[in-house]
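Box 3.1 A note on notation
Throughout this textbook, protein chains are presented in two layers. The first layer is the amino acid sequence; the second is a token string describing backbone geometry. Keep the layers aligned when reading.
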Amino acid sequence: MKTLITGGTVLTMDPTVGDLARGDVLIDGGRIVRVAEHIETPEDAEVVDARERIVMPGFVDNHRHNWQTAFRGMGADWTFGQWAAAMHGTVKPHYTPEDVFAATLLGRLEALHSGITTMLDWYHVAQGPEHEDAAVTALQQAPGRSVFCLGAGWATPVSVDADIHRVRAQLADDDALVTMAWGLRGADDTGMDTLARELQLADELGLRTSLHTGGDHRPVAAMHERGLLRDTTTFVHGNGIGDDELRMLAGAGSHLSVSPDVELKMGFGAPLTGRALAAGLRPTLSIDVVPSVGGDMFSTMRTAFSAQRGLDGTLRARDLLHFTTIDAARSCGLHARTGSITPGKDADVILLRTDDLTVFPVTDPAGSIVTAGHPGIVDTVLVAGRIVKQNGALLGAGLGPLKQRLLASRDRIAAAAGIPLDGTWNPKP
């Protein structure tokens, strides 16, 4: 089926295509086939009126621990130590596969609702294969593009190799909407020899990898010395690593995922956005954990923008849109399929309202999105050409019953863990 998006302000994020103050986007078979100022409506096309809308690629969140959705907002005041003690030490042992499913599905739908068409779900609630299968099933039921990033070895009783091979056999189709990556534990947890062996296995299985890292013990330099830096690895956070290590990442073609809200609130240090750019490395942005921060990319962009502008004034609003679309898609290995409005790519597209009073009047589209945007202006969302949100509402999501399942999950876990749900919980790190 053909779809014609017509009359919108088109931000393609593709310099070869350019932006259009008033333009049309034609979709056929789930792919973008043409972008122009005016396209005659094909007889068999569904028409989407984009007047008073910004048309742009959907956002890409390349690092979110989606299993924590049920505890949204509980950790607003927590330090990193408190978050780790609460989520990993206290509540995680009580998760059942049903808890994982409900949190993953509702979290993925919430991200779609806010315009995130692609999400890398960094899974480390490992209790066993049933929990992993529940997360994969939830992502497959959500009508979004997702990467299931399996954090193998995080307290799972199954061997890492067996775990990786088992899930890879399930997610063998790299052209599907749900694909797979490997969430590595890192040399501090496993030792450099194990990290090297697991990176080799990831290469053999055709898996991209993601790795949390910080400044202690110069981890990037140690990997560089062992020849372990790859263009298929995304390093998460990285606060405290040296400028020379950032240049090592840039030289290897590696990627960096910055979670500015979490990093500032939990005391990681200043986000690396500006330092990464100075080192020749394109940063990307991610949400991380919703117990502590909001789940939308608008607030994440705003925090990153304000923090870096306060340091050196270098970033432009347009940079943030690049970080959260084409740059993030590249970090997931999906830049040939998504991340820009380019003929030949899948139609992962969002329409943002410009007539909403919170952004009206829109003079500079990029500036308005970054400084004033919020999920309430996300009018329409398409994933691979399929309309999954229209006129501000998700289509066929069954949110009522799912919300009840998530509430029941939260209450059961809290009761089993012996924690209050009245805002008074102050976990000890």
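The mean pLDDT is 96. The first strand starts at residue 2 and ends at 10.
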